[in-house]
Amino acid sequence: MSRTVYCSFLKKDADGLDFQLYPGDLGKRIFDNISKEAWGQWQHKQTMLINEKKLNMMDPEHRKLLETEMVNFLFEGKDIVIDGYTPPSE
Q1: Euclidean distance between CA atoms 61 and 56, whole angstroms
Q2: Tens digit of pLDDT for each residue in 27-50?
Q3: Does residue 7 contact residue 34 with C-beta atoms inside 8 Å?
Q4: What is the pTM of this model?
Q5: CATH 1.10.3880.10 is held by the domain 4-75
Q6: Given this model, what pLDDT does residue 90 score?
Q7: Chain segment 46-59, per-residue pLDDT in tens
Q8: Helix, strand, or coil here: 36?
């Protein structure tokens, strides 16, 4: 059964995540306030960030950077700026 959350990213009710995908208080905040759709958008950005910045997920500094970007993207309304990436023009 799907659950509905008010997605603070999309600013509307949407399908919530099936389970908490991120640890700790931040994970709970994401679970309670972020939809599957918004999480999917973040996953896409995250992949681009990891590739662009050649992040190593074993490195605590790199994980911290990614977490900061995730919070900025999901909760602060800041788009991720990826150096050298040009979004496809409409």
Answers
A1: 9
A2: 999 999 999 999 999 999 999 999
A3: yes
A4: 0.86
A5: yes
A6: 55
A7: 999 999 999 999 99
A8: helix
How many residues are recorded in the chain? 90
The domain locations on the chain are 4-75
Phi, psi of 4 (to 5 degrees): -105, 135
Enter the tokens of residue 42: 């973040």
- The b-or-e profile of 49-61 (16+ CB within 10 A means b, else e) is beeeeebeeeeee
Amino acid, res. 49: L
User: Is the per-residue pLDDT at 63 higher than 90?
Assistant: yes
Task: Work out the burial of residue 64: count CB atoms within 10 Å of its CB; fewer than 13 is exposed, 13-18 middle, 19 or more buried.
Answer: exposed
